[in-house]
Amino acid sequence: MRTFIIGSKELSCIILDTLFGAGHEVLGVFSRDTQVGMRVWHEMGHRSLAEEAEALNIPVYHEMKVNSDAALNLLSSLNLDVVYSCFWSEIFRQPVLDIPRLGVFNFHSALLPSYRGSRPIPWAMINGEARTGMTAHKMLPGIDNGPIAGSVSVEIGSNSSAKEVYDSVVSQCPGLVLSVTSKFSDASFKLTEQDEKNATYYPRGEPFARQLNAWWSEAQQDRFKRAFDFPPFKQAKSAPGPLNVNLGPQVYFVTSDGLPILEISKFKFDLKQNSIGSPRERKEIKNHLPPTTSPGIMLDSSAAGMYMIHDVLIGKGIQFISSAQVSPADIKTGWGCCQPYRHENGLLEIPAIRIKDEGDLNGLVKAAQRQCVQAHLDIFIHIQSTPAGLIGLTGIASNLDVSLIDINSIANHYNESNE
């Protein structure tokens, strides 16, 4: 078959070895080996696709943009049967996907349709999955969608590091490449459609900004640490300590008067889609952002899973949001639901608690003071506005022996702890 490789890291070299060893024509490769970010992989022992191809007298194209006119012209001129892709940073558009006779096939380090998107192996570890792997699928416009040609699966050990899991996955790929390639030699080969009902997606960015959450269980924290155990890359960061190191853990009322509001309930499109959105949708979000110099913003409904909004807000320099609202009844299942936490792509959330009256607040504070002593953690009670009929939050804080703090100070504390 007439093939072409667009990829990086050791897997791209495994694909090259397999194709060349099986007697297929490799008519060229797109390489990003000259990028600064690739140096660390080469230092870890990953071979260079460019060097391996050059040694076989195969043409190498450095820093070629796959959707550029130059790439389209080149690939169209080669009468290709199939293109293989792995660990590439661009989304392939339809004109490129239509060029090879059989299509463009990508190798994604997950068991699709689960864990589409960014950092699939760390996310599988963080979520406590028993297995992960590599999937070869025919690319469609979108992120890691398209029918499956084959996959390999490996176990995630209870003490495995991310590097150990990654190396285990890659070690299984020579067989996967050979299996998939042999199928293409048979004109009657069939692909398996991905079940969209089981699809999951994770956005770009380090999971939870690489910052531990003190309210996670020991098992969750252990999985999170191991998901970032991949030398020489950075490890997980500690959870923030007490806001006041001299006084130790305290209960705080958090005020947020004056935060600008983004009314996401008025958007007409699906904000929970498994992507970072289309250019039109992202532009609409930007157009609705209130003019502000504030580092934070309030949303009129929960932004859980709304990666498109998170991505736009981060791009605009927003450091934290307040979109989640919980009731005192919700807190009975655990205080973590109302304490500051990070969304999947690292955006800081400072939830608000709905308070009906002063009696409701008194009971909540007493429970918070007990939890503060028991967990040895700060407890933040964020009230977006003073409950009707109360004598004023400053007076209430004084009467209940609770400190009063502005929401910006909480955000600064969490973000500085993450630097």
Structure description:
There is one protein chain. This protein is α/β, with parallel strands linked by helices and 419 residues long. The chain folds into 2 domains: 201 residues, Rossmann fold, CATH 3.40.50.170; 177 residues, no CATH class. Helix content is 32%, strand content 19%. A 7-stranded mixed sheet has the order 3-2-1-4-5-7-8. It has a 5-stranded mixed sheet with strand order 11-12-13-16-15, with helices on one face. Strand 4, helix 5 and strand 5 form a beta-alpha-beta unit. The mean pLDDT is 92.
List the helices and strands and how they pair.
Layout: E1 2-7, H1 9-21, E2 25-31, H2 39-43, H3 49-55, E3 60-62, H4 69-76, E4 82-86, H5 94-97, E5 103-108, E6 116-117, H6 120-126, E7 131-138, E8 148-155, H7 162-171, H8 173-184, E9 201-202, H9 218-227, E10 251-255, E11 261-262, H10 279-288, E12 296-299, H11 307-315, E13 320-322, E14 325-326, H12 328-331, E15 341-342, E16 348-349, E17 352-353, H13 358-375, E18 379-383, H14 393-399, E19 403-406, H15 407-417
Parallel strand pairs: 1-2, 1-4, 2-3, 4-5, 6-9, 10-18, 10-19, 11-12, 12-13, 13-16, 14-17
Antiparallel strand pairs: 5-7, 7-8, 15-16
